[in-house]
Amino acid sequence: MTLRFEILARDSTSQARLGRVHTPHGSFDTPAFMAVGTRGTVKGLTPDMLRQVGCRIILGNTYHLMLRPGSDVVRDLGGLQKFSGFNGPMLTDSGGFQVFSLADLRQFDRDHVVFKSHIDGATVRLGPVESMHIQHELGADIAMAFDDCPPADCPPERLAQAMDRTIRWAAICREEHEKRDSEKLQSLFGIVQGGTNFNERRRCAEALLAMDFDGYALGGLAVGEGHERMITTIDQVAPLLPEKRPRYLMGVGYPVDILEAVKRGVDMFDCVLPTRNGRNAVAFTSAGPIRLRNSQYIRDPGPLDASCDCVCCRQFSRGYLRHLFTVGEMLGPTLISLHNLRFFQRWMLDIQQAIRDNNCSMLVAPGAAKC
Amino acid sequence: MTLRFEILARDSTSQARLGRVHTPHGSFDTPAFMAVGTRGTVKGLTPDMLRQVGCRIILGNTYHLMLRPGSDVVRDLGGLQKFSGFNGPMLTDSGGFQVFSLADLRQFDRDHVVFKSHIDGATVRLGPVESMHIQHELGADIAMAFDDCPPADCPPERLAQAMDRTIRWAAICREEHEKRDSEKLQSLFGIVQGGTNFNERRRCAEALLAMDFDGYALGGLAVGEGHERMITTIDQVAPLLPEKRPRYLMGVGYPVDILEAVKRGVDMFDCVLPTRNGRNAVAFTSAGPIRLRNSQYIRDPGPLDASCDCVCCRQFSRGYLRHLFTVGEMLGPTLISLHNLRFFQRWMLDIQQAIRDNNCSMLVAPGAAKC
Questions:
Q1: The model's pTM
Q2: CATH annotation of B4-30+61-271
């Protein structure tokens, strides 16, 4: 195992823990929020900006990078960290989720998904062996096992089939990873699937634990099942996962979702919300969401969020930010994405401090309304 | 006059001079290249990035800003410097050139151009009084007199008519400026027009000199007349302009054009080349232009320009930069614009040093081929 996970403090009012993950490209503190850098860049932000707003680990999407520029190109250019200029810890997802959400004409054979590229319609086969090969070439510090992520509302037979596949594929990934990672530069996380069915979740978790992954993710949540059922599932599944390994809730989420998951022992998160909302002129603030296209901001000289320390809030007025979106200037998406990422990173710092202070159960998520 | 222009050194091998312009928002050294911030932002770059690459003065476009967000909004948000977050010296053009190049259905009445907005088709009347009002509201350190900028190939009658208007309008601008600028926060430059006709240029220059502007621009060049005729015109007209006022060649240009104009006594320049080419994946480098979309750069691990000190050249490979353009990521235009601006600013520093060294006539423009 190349990844080292220290638990530095525990909150006595919940299952929350403060930790530090060490990787070959540096360390990051947990609970951690990973910005999403789909195609080797967090849209519109330089690596310097990412560091300025406190991003310590970035996620890249295997599906997008395998199609363009191709994992062999990323490998030839020094791996994802050097390629992107971030040069800090990075994680790649397995490609599974994007295949199910973006690609056309999916078919399964035993150990592959066959799909048409959303870019040029080319037929692509992706399975656990290919995913491990591609992620090894991308060279992120943390790779994810290739899983079958079924829709939230799928019938029980489809769910059971997905669990069978996810478990079988996890074993293949474990073996492939072991073969490829002779230099011990990458870690591999398993992904527990099972929808909101506890029996399937438990079956999946138990099978994956026996394979001894470096960390464990909860997949297939925040896909439409609703906040309550998501929290219930985390409540049930998190205790099944080993104490000494990082736990990662994939694709989540709003500040309140993150807090509830942290209180149940989750350590890592990723979500496109700060950047996607930022590109759409919606800012997270301590007073709730701000939709900058609203005409009320035309002459507003105030900062986006007076309590924020980011460059966007220190240098620009709401009126100027609105103008950038009105005329379609790309600096608008850049600045609001930057602010939103800072908002999320400050929230993670608040959560980390609450754990140190044994105060997690008293913490209230900022900007209560969802954007 | 609020603008102070010091001449610090002269090149003995040419008419080039090294100077410093002081404005209410700070000073800048000449020969100076102004980045173009059309709509209150240099596309894709933060003010911090502009300062990092050495931009000391930015140009804003009156035509665009009057339409959106409106000069009253910019005024209410503190003026263009505060609005844009640049907080350094800024200059606004008069709106004339854009009216002639962008707007539809132009008609003249005695002291107005009547046109339809390229945004919503609304009818707008713009003349010297309106231009002074708008530029006063925008509040840049340097405003430009409203001129009639005829096409390069126009018949003699149209040219003569344009000179009559330019001279009459300059007088109106001078008077309006005097009335409005009671706090002496803005300077006003006159614009010498006349195409490539020396008699018209001289007539215009003499009329404008009698009005005593804070600086003098050469307008109506680099509009299709070709390099040789442009240089000939500068050769003829620059000596007519007062020694002790800054001379500004509008809309120019390539490094070699800038050098030739500097050697003829020009101090200020602006051009969209570095940013427009940057957005189109064309980089200026010491070895000539690089078109990053070319497939030869797919696996190129080298920097864009090994001799450049900008963030783009220090942190990223050509292969990565090409990838950004291939997938349409906005970081691509941002990074190449940043590099190209640094390339131009380094060229201005080289020119300034050559003046100090009495060596201007030996200087050779970098990256000889035009992009």
A1: 0.97
A2: 3.20.20.105
